[in-house]
Design goal:
The protein is an alpha+beta fold. The protein is built from eight helices and 18 strands. A hairpin with a 3-residue loop joins strand 15 and strand 16. It starts with a strand and ends in a 7-residue tail after the last strand. The chain binds ligand PPE.
Length: 308
């Protein structure tokens, strides 16, 4: 992980090693934070943040669902992110904004604790490995079910909620797989530990709906649009566990993993990445890297700082 020299913390640019919080930070004890994962890519016109506004909107929504107001406007966070990227010198990077309940009263009522914010950037390669992104990864169905709206908020990208993903991820790694697929509380396929999922059967693409407890993934929406623009039939519906193993193709989407094929589930071979996966992956990659003019509106160009 190649990190930048600076972090944006509560409105200031501070040295990476000075970006600190108190150990009684509410979010450290109770998980009361919300975050985003965003990527910026090198494009012909310069570095561009992919679907920046959509990520900032989701950050605001996640905060709202946990009774927090963003302590800075989305525009301020956007501009701070631009400056951070420009000053980092990175041509492409991963961007992690976090908004959290800070140091204040202890106990479960967070409403008196200050809401703080930071943005960090670092260079992050293929999330599930270069080899996995090219040839597919091996996954298992987790013994942990995805959090449901009975007890938490699947729609929110909230720090504490990720204990669910962390357990599923550890379980998959310790049992010899690269990723975990979580079922929802009804037993339907939900998503990966940090990715949405698509299942291709007989040229039709299926993905679990919002009501299946998924995170409303921005790359999920992106790949849905790309698939439809390519002329594929795409259906949002509940997917049974067995459909994974019987699928022609399965792939995962997310900011970190981009599009990563699944080549095996529960020791049953799905096969190497198929033609539909490959085609969507190629167009998606073009969109991310500014090579698809029809999707240029998804790029938020980082302004080049004027030389003083
Ligand atoms: N589901 C979950 C649970 C999830 O965490 C992510 C993103 C997605 C789906 C896909 O959402 P989107 O990125 O908007 O397409 N996971 C982030 C966190 C990864 C991490 O290890 O941290 C990410 O991909 O940035």
């Amino acid at each position: 992980m190649n990190t930048a020299d600076l972090i944006w913390l509560n409105g200031e640019f501070v040295a990476w090693e000075d970006a600190k919080v108190h150990v009684l930070t509410h979010a450290l004890h109770y998980g009361t934070g919300v975050f985003e994962g965003i990527r910026a890519y090198e494009t012909e016109g310069g570095t561009a943040v992919f679907r920046h506004q959509d990520h900032l909107n989701r950050l605001e929504n996640s905060a709202k669902l946990y009774y927090m107001d963003l302590p800075f406007t989305k525009e301020q966070i956007r501009e701070a992110t631009h400056e951070l990227i420009a000053r980092s010198g990175f041509k492409s990077c991963y961007i992690r904004p976090l908004v959290w309940r800070g140091y204040g009263p202890m106990g479960l009522n967070p409403l008196e604790n200050p809401v703080e914010a930071m943005v960090a950037v670092w260079e992050w390669g293929a999330y599930l490995g270069e080899e996995g992104q090219q040839n597919g990864v091996r996954a298992r169905v987790s013994s942990y079910r995805r959090i449901s709206s009975d007890s938490l908020i699947p729609h929110a990208k909230a720090s504490g909620q990720y204990l669910n993903s962390v357990l599923a991820k550890i379980e998959s790694l310790k049992s010899g797989y690269e990723e975990a697929i979580l079922l929802d509380d009804q037993g339907h396929v939900c998503e990966g530990s940090g990715e949405n999922i698509f299942v291709v059967k007989n040229d039709v693409i299926h993905t679990p709906p919002q009501t299946a407890g998924i995170l409303d993934g921005i790359n999920r929406k992106t790949c849905m649009q790309i698939a439809r623009d390519l002329g594929y039939e795409l259906v949002e519906r509940d997917v049974a566990r067995a459909e994974l193993a019987l699928a022609d193709e399965v792939f995962l989407t997310g900011t970190a993993c981009e599009l990563t094929p699944l080549r095996e589930i529960d020791d049953i071979e799905i096969g190497p990445p198929g033609p539909i996966t490959r085609e969507i992956q190629r167009v998606f990659d073009d969109a991310l890297r500014g090579r698809a003019p029809q999707y240029a509106e998804w790029l938020d160009l980082v302004p080049v700082p004027s030389k003083a």
